[in-house]
Design a protein that fits this description.
With about 325 residues, the protein is α/β, with parallel strands linked by helices. About 30% of the residues lie in helices and about 15% in strands. It folds into two domains: about 120 residues, 3-Layer(aba) Sandwich (Rossmann fold); about 180 residues, Rossmann fold (3-Layer(aba) Sandwich), CATH 3.40.50.720. This is D-2-hydroxyacid dehydrogenase.
């Protein structure tokens, strides 16, 4: 058995990985030349990182991949993936940092702070309407997993009227939510929300979820935020709805396609904030997030090498992590 590590880790983090692996050799890609990388890849029983799916045919001994990302559609949507390889994602590491992004973006748009940025660029001193805040607002969080729950926790001090969560399966409601529903309830929830936040993966169930009809069923003054996957929403449809005067605007950290073509009219809309898929900081960017990823990798590495089932296994049938770790992956 051997472990092959693709991302760059600090010396202290490397020691933690080696300690988690025990007597099993751990090789780091950045220490190897090209020939050594090919040999290590072919020999690896476990890989930490995100190898391209099309390269996995060259890893006949591989049995498990531990990702440093939360989303696993790199593999779940791949044309081919080996049946005998398990995949664990890093769900749980990114909720806090993405929740902070959402809060910042929502306040920016609700209080028109982006308008002042544009005015500053032109040297213009002109008060805008104060806008509205989160206090007294109803916030609908579609995707009440790690990201949605961390957002709900951070919303409480802002005194919203209600924080409504929607998740794929019925489970106990966390205290940070006022109400909790499954996806079937969405048709009666869209029109209640002042802020709609979508934090969903790319699955058959979620693709195209934010249709023209759904957008029109939202409040005329609603703000839409999408931090999950761009496949939820057709940017042409969103632009047409906004052009008609419906919705207060949108915050998009993800688009379809990605990147959004520079000629697309959404780029030039003052009621839309577009960021290049940066809500969840990448490995090494934010110390707190990186520490959570390292903890996840070390914990799962110990489990896998001791013959136990790792946490956060990706269920290829649903595109989500398995809620029950005894659940089969495919």
């Amino acid at each position: 058995m051997s472990v092959y590590v693709l991302p760059s880790f600090t010396p202290a983090q490397r020691e933690r990985l080696r300690a988690a692996a025990g007597s099993v050799p751990v090789l780091f890609a950045e220490d190897c030349d090209e020939e050594q990388r090919r040999t290590a890849f072919r020999a690896a029983t476990a890989i930490v990182g995100e190898p391209k799916p099309e390269t996995l045919a060259d890893a006949p001994n591989l049995r498990w991949i531990q990702m440093t990302w939360a989303g696993a559609d790199l593999y779940t949507k791949a044309p081919w993936f080996p049946d005998n390889v398990l995949v664990s994602c890093a769900t749980g590491a990114f909720g806090g940092v993405i929740a902070e992004y959402i809060l910042g973006a929502v306040l920016l748009r609700l209080r028109h702070l982006d308008a002042y940025v544009r005015q500053q660029e032109r040297g213009v001193w002109r008060p805008q309407l104060s806008g509205k805040g989160i206090e007294g607002a109803t916030v609908l969080i579609v995707g009440a997993g790690d990201i949605g729950t961390e957002l709900a926790k951070r919303l409480r001090p802002f005194l919203p009227r209600a924080v409504i969560g929607v998740r794929r399966t019925a489970r106990e409601k966390p205290d940070c939510f006022d109400e909790m529903y499954t996806m079937e309830a969405l048709p009666r929830l869209w029109g209640r929300a002042d802020v709609v936040v979508c934090a969903l993966p790319n699955t058959a169930e979620t693709r195209g979820l934010l249709s023209r009809e759904v957008l029109w069923s939202m409040k005329n003054t609603a703000l839409l935020v999408n931090v999950g996957r761009g496949t939820l929403l057709d940017p042409d449809v969103l632009n047409a709805v906004l052009e008609s005067g419906h919705l207060a605007g949108a915050v998009l950290d993800v688009t379809n396609p990605e990147p959004l073509p520079p000629e697309h009219p959404l780029w030039r809309r003052e009621d839309v904030l577009i960021t290049p898929h940066v809500a969840g900081a990448s490995f090494g960017d934010v110390p707190e997030t990186t520490e959570k990823i390292v903890e996840t990798v070390c914990r799962n590495l110990k489990k896998f090498l001791h013959g136990e089932q790792p946490d956060n296994l990706v269920n290829f049938a649903t595109g989500y992590r398995s809620l029950n770790t005894a659940q089969t992956q495919k």
